[in-house]
Amino acid sequence: MSHMEPTAVIPPLAGTASATHASVSRRALLMRRLKPYLYLLPAIVLLIIWMYRPLLYTCYLAFQKWGMVPGTEPTFVGFDNFTRLFRTDSFVHSIGNTVFYTVGLLPFSIVIPLILAVVTDGMKGKSKNFYRAIFFIPMILAPVSVGAIWRWLFHPSNGLVNNLLLKLNVVDRPIAFFSDAQWAKWIILFITGWKMIGFAVLMFSSALTGINREYYEAASIDGAGKFRVFIRITAPLVSPMVLFMLTMSILFASQWTFAYIDMLTAGGPYGSSTNVYYEMYKNAFANMNVGFSSAAALVFFVVFGLIALGLNALSRKLSFYDN
Amino acid sequence: MNKRSPALTLVQHGLLALMCVIAVFPLYWMLISAFKNESEIFTASMFPHKPVLTNFTYAFDEMPIFRMMLNSFSIAIMTGVFQMATSLLAAYALVRWRFRGQGLIFSILSLTWLIPYQAVMVPNYSLVNSMGLNENIMGIVLPYAVSTFAILSLYQSFQSFPRVLIEAASIDGLSDFGILVKLILPNIKSMVASLGIILFLNGWSEYLWPMLITKEMENAPIEIGLRLFVNSDTNMWGSLMAAATAACIPILLIYILLQRQIVDSFVRYGMK
């Protein structure tokens, strides 16, 4: 470790100051000690104002009843909001949907992209880059544009998807994709997944590119089959990336679906496509039930925090690294 | 690996081509729907036989699209610049010095990653309201003036910079700030640019917060304006797709121009 520690030792320049300038150099020394904090100040102050102050305030609101109406004061209700969480059907239902979205997204964030990355990896530079650039397009589009386009494609009476299904005689009546409880959440899952694939392909591709080619050469000299090579070499060496994508996917799936839930179904029909984050939003800004929303936010902050810790521990334990 | 059989290669390209169609077709459909006339819009035709511009004129009449586009650019650029400035300073301090509380600061930064926006939206909404910044671009930008994602990404980039050079510059009398601006930044500018692209795109695509702050199209970024339009005029699909096309064009242009850099940025830093 070659870290210089200017806060602990007097740096070379300050050493030229003589004893008569003791007070000056003491001030300089103080400045040096303070310097790291000064550089960090803007970031930390902003984080406190916009992240940690509100987080604490949410903790406070979780024990209150409040409708966010100007001029009204929150009233203390103890653990009421927390007990109500698990007695409210719509909320319990949204937990089930959250699990559905989280698990359902894994094929889109891991399985399909891994296959695509492996297939493109063996190709020449040009076609490889072309495919990857195309796959990536959905990723850079903003969620509202994406939501609008898919809303049109899946339109219940005039959308292209229904048009084609009718023409091909797959169905005899158009499907109301967004207001049919059987379809709504699948459509939202599909759109979220469609947007994710390109990013995941890119991440897996870069992990594959990082694998030393000599392993493959050695394996082919030893006469190992393709499948064996994948299981013995490729899979272990991309496993850190798989775990990374798994973590991202599990932690953020519910956030990524939020925009499409809001734009396409507003959580309906009958709460069949909502998730916990959308319920928090709806309770705070539509039902004016801030305490309930805050309690939910806190519970799931802790739940996702524990999941993150677990996954982090798992990735330390299981990952193989190419050293 | 040249042993691949031609049949397998064909199957592979077929699969990839199919995936490309799935990825791009919705965009194509948006584009041609925007040019279809009223009698054609509800058909499955894959090309507008008599392309019209009426959808665009209607959309531009109904929505202040240029104004909203300007809002979007201002928001994305300002959040990007603020986040970059605060994280350059913070990441530099974390790399340059060892100091008391450094571990604590890393914990604070990593923890922020896990705070869902829904857990802070109500207090932030009240604060922005009481500051009188509702329906104001600054109300959208300020809570996003710092990004721990940016700080940790830059920290990682700064660490790749040789320490010896920093120490040499320090002995030569370059000030601490000078080392950041004159020595480190010019040498890692491609990484900074990469991160800048991601921050810009994030600012452009932000959903929940701008939606809470702006209810009027005049003050909204284009994406939120588009959402208002979708929710109001559900049967003007041609105009809606025209508006969506307008909203996508800046991002698509940037992607076409900077495609390599954008892809590299995401590979390097992942996403928020």
TrEMBL record, chain A:
It is a multi-pass membrane protein. Keywords: Cell membrane, Membrane, Transmembrane, Transmembrane helix, Transport. Belongs to the binding-protein-dependent transport system permease family. Residues 95-311 form the ABC transmembrane type-1 domain. The chain crosses the membrane at residues 37-63, 99-119, 131-153, 186-208, 229-253, 290-314. InterPro entries: ABC_transporter_permease (IPR051393), MetI-like (IPR000515), MetI-like_sf (IPR035906). This is Sugar ABC transporter permease.
TrEMBL record, chain B:
The chain crosses the membrane at residues 7-29, 73-95, 104-125, 137-158, 179-201, 236-258. Pfam families: BPD_transp_1 (PF00528). Residues 69-258 form the ABC transmembrane type-1 domain. One of its GO terms (cellular component) is plasma membrane. PROSITE patterns: ABC_TM1. Keywords: Cell membrane, Membrane, Transmembrane, Transmembrane helix, Transport. One of its GO terms (biological process) is transmembrane transport. Gene3D superfamilies: MetI-like. It is found in: Cell membrane. It is a multi-pass membrane protein. Belongs to the binding-protein-dependent transport system permease family. PANTHER family: ABC TRANSPORTER PERMEASE PROTEIN MG189-RELATED-RELATED, SN-GLYCEROL-3-PHOSPHATE TRANSPORT SYSTEM PERMEASE PROTEIN UGPE. This is Carbohydrate ABC transporter permease. The lineage of its organism: Bacteria, Bacillati, Bacillota, Bacilli, Bacillales.
